[in-house]
Give the backbone structure.
Amino acid sequence: MKTMDQNWTQADRAKAAARLMLGWVALLWLIEAVDLATGHALVAYGIAARETDGLTGIPLAPFLHFGFDHTASNSIPLLVLGFVAALGGIRRFLAVCALIIAADGLGVWLFSPSHSITVGASGLVFGLFGYLVTRGFVERKVLGVAVGLAVAAVWGGTIFLGVLPTDSGSVSWQAHLFGLAAGVATALFFRRPDTPRPTGPR
């Protein structure tokens, strides 16, 4: 018996992944338009460091941004990395994103500067990078390794600089660092078990 996911062709998976990520990015722009129209009132729902009310910002912060420039800077990498990750299955992809967002958000809440509010999808972007780079190696799949190396070649330099501590209050290196760590951990957590090879009579 096959599941619905197994019956899907690669073209079906690609179409579903593309629709999901285009809709996701479009949602970010729509939310930012609403935020602008409300005088940036939505930013208050981000992650407020070590404040009890700030915990509610953990699932919300990746969908909020400080202006359209901030939204634009995250849109392309989220679209590309999300599409590639979603090719492995939509349900698995959503579970991966949920774990990255939760772990990254908790790290930001604990270690960001006091009285700060953190928003933006960059933590998820760094998490998807870590997930894709790690996944192929832990699953020992040639295609996955190739994808990971390609992703590292394109975004590796930016990711490395993004996790370095900085005094700039406009960039949350904590979100980048914990997002990256969460992505690597998620790849290990979702590692597919090795399929036992059939054995013949001896």
Observations:
- The two ends are 29 Å apart (CA to CA).
- The mean pLDDT is 91.
